[in-house]
Amino acid sequence: MGRPVVYWELMSRDPAKVAAFYEKVFDWNIQSRKIENRPQMNYRMVDTDAGQGINGGIVRPEREGPWPGNMTIYIDVDDLAPYRKRIVDAGGKILVDEQQVGDMGSLTLFADPEGRMMGLWKAKPH
Length: 126
Known about the structure:
alpha+beta, 2,3-Dihydroxybiphenyl 1,2-Dioxygenase, domain 1, eight-stranded mixed β-sheet, 17% helix, 46% strand
């Protein structure tokens, strides 16, 4: 069985402007949010309020470009470590080994063989 996409992020030089665009066009509910372990991060949570589909976020990366793509999707996994190994074995590269995201879970960022940045997500058990 395949692993589902569970989240997405848009990288933006001006998150407020991008958020206003998507709110206006698609009626999304977008709120600024402080990330517990990174309060300086300019992050907006996106609730598409569709009852189906996938919610996401809009972020201004902490470093200047070039960014390895301007959109990242996150794939739900049950354990980050074995998937990091699978990524490397298949020709990908680990960009962020493992990072905790508040009390929500942890992520790994990786690049596919063509350099697209993607993410693995492991939610904390409820």
